[in-house]
Amino acid sequence: MDANCIRDLAGIVGEPWVTTDDEHLKGYAKDNSFVPPRMPQCVARPGSAEDLEETVRWANRTRTPLVPVSSGEPRLRGDTIPRLGGAVVDLQRMKRIVRIDRRNRVAVIEPGVTFGELVPALAREGLRLNGPLLPRSNKSVLASVLEREPGLMPRYQWDISDPLCCLEVVFGTGDRFRTGEAAGPGGLEAQWRIGGAQKFPLGPHQVDYHRLVQGAQGTMGIATWASIKCETLPKAKKLFFLHAERIEDLVPFAYELTKKGYGDEVFLMNRVELAALLKGAGILPEFQAAQTGLPSWVLTFCISGGAYFPEEQLEVLEKDLKELAQSLGQVFSQTAGDLPAARMLSLLDRCSDEPYWKYGVLGQFREIFFITTLDRSPRFIETVRLLAGETGVPESRIGVYLQPVVQGTSCHCEFDLFFDGEDAKESAKTRELFERASSALIRQGAFFSRPYPAWADEVYRTQGTFAETLKKVKAVFDPNGILNPGKLCF
Question: Which one of 90, 337, 394, 473 is most buried, counting C-beta atoms within 10 A?
């Protein structure tokens, strides 16, 4: 990229918002993954949809790769490392909360809006997100939704794309496009005047275009805003634990909870993940010692009461759930070993403190996650356990997090590998486990629905027809291949 190209880009987004300084670029060259680092040639920070639109057209003229980024550091999964160099498009300047619609329970936000900004803004309006567990405060909400990060409340998720509703996207052609109800007629303000809320996601016509962008790691288009479905804040809330020595003993009750629509937050953890969560959140001082005071496996679930007679609602729900648990020969309580319910409840509906809680355990971590069903998760857990023994990684360093999604019909299964990044031997063992476990799980049928660079080649190698179809779609929406090249199967 020559000086004239840089000058043209500065003319689009403004000279102060383009940098080629090596020290600044280093922050975009690597992340918390095993993906090799690569420096971009510049970073541009557009301030509006118009800036972004012109930036994409500039990239087409100059054949410059564009890598979209909207979250703050540290980034985690290799999807924003510029594999072929080019320009990073950092969207953190675009941080307007365009609208919060309490009546229709929807928020319209730009990509730079973070969880640390949106969560309290929604709370002031009596709303909350169905968001991930203790997210980074500087994580882009729009990026999280586009990545399909699992929310804590499966009963509010009716489709894998939830809570994404509509979005405006600049495709790789440089064309700006709105999906679903937002497609028109008229702009956002005109639709608001006649009662539109940008909540219906399907279309326009017979194609749900938002599905092309979601999970695409910025290879199809770059979103300028999105409408996000929200839920009302409860007036009263109560949290319970059900624990067991084997994960299999918790699965039947978890299925009944989600099948009958009981509970808001519902998730399962092993004692390692639970200790890590509490240590990273500053609740427990010691990671290893904390594990001894916790059960092997814990199912956490909440019930809540709405605007009218909330306490009475809680009484009825608790009574029903006790009868359900008794029918399965189980009893839940408000303690899990040394952990009281109030402490866990304090971690919900908020963001992680700094540093991000997973860094606060042993200093470093790596994640392996995929979609399966809850009843199949024990076989995957056993696979990782056996490989940990072969690679010399202690089981006390492997957290397991199971998050039911889409009404409990499927499950996000996640392994968090915690290690000391300053210890070269420990880092090497963790990397070996990460690579061997990822390959074994893919062969075993784990569905890596978000194939980040560490997994993409192996995932698409077994899906030749699907990969070829994706390439044809990419040729339509990004014919010059400028958007995040080298990711997915491109």
Answer: 90
